[in-house]
Design brief:
alpha+beta; elongated; binds zinc ion; 6-stranded mixed sheet
Amino acid sequence: MRCLPRGGAYGLSPPWSVTSVDFRQPEGAIHFEVDCMAKRLPCPSCGAADQPIHDRIARRWQHLHFFQFRAFIDARLPRVACSACSKATQVEVSWARPGSRFSLVMEAFVVAMCQAMPVAHVARLVGVSDDRIWRVLKHHVDQARAKEDHAAVRRIGVDETSTRRGKGSRWALLKNSVNWTRKQIDTMHWLQRSGLKTARAWRLKEALCRIYQQCTDPAEAERLLRRWISWARRSRLTPFKVLSATVRAHLEGIVEHFRSGLSNGFVEGMNSQIQAAKARAKGYATTANMTVIAYLLCAKLRHLPRNPWLPHHAS
Ligand SMILES: [Zn+2]
């Protein structure tokens, strides 16, 4: 091609410039070759000016698609041989972060896409492995979290969620009974008739839920909670004996809920958002992956890379 795109499309500035554009139709890709025109550079390690270039190492970064074609930036990165600090140090480039094989705008686009669709879908669209997308996400979520300031936080809410697929009667036990499906109602009726431990556990759980749903007076709540603790302690169900001890240990704080009116509705809302993403993704292979998605979707991180498709005045 005669007319080369301007360097601004890649975040290029002198001494870097585009030297060739190679359209490889069988590969469905366009390769942009960029080169550093300088013969001497400042040392990236100690900053000493005007140092000779030791050698150049070929590197490739995947950039945003050009129309339907994948796009790559190819460059030979100079290593500066410094007479001041005696190190040979590779220069950093303005269009990518060290160690990444994506351009910065491509990483920003990947992060934006992962907020709207499962990682596996993004990987297919970009034409790379899931692992590479996860690595980009983890890097940017970690960076964004490190920049957050939680000094003004006064209250925290706690809820639990699950990483993997698989729900059945366990899900029905956790779910509010008014939202049960016909099949779950049938299962629960069978469980109640069976006299199984599961059914006793369900009655205990329902009783505790009712205290939360119906009680508005702190004194009444404390009386009912103490009665529930006594029942759970004698239930011959180890998890409920443990729970009753926990409720007793934190009784004062729990009763405070009935005084202040604070609830865990907010964290439950976040939980629903995480579970919906998990369902779309058909489960997560690791807890670490789900944690990354939870932060990405729910944490309102203010320092993620900016979606390159948004207009400049939008956030
Ligand atoms: Zn140096």
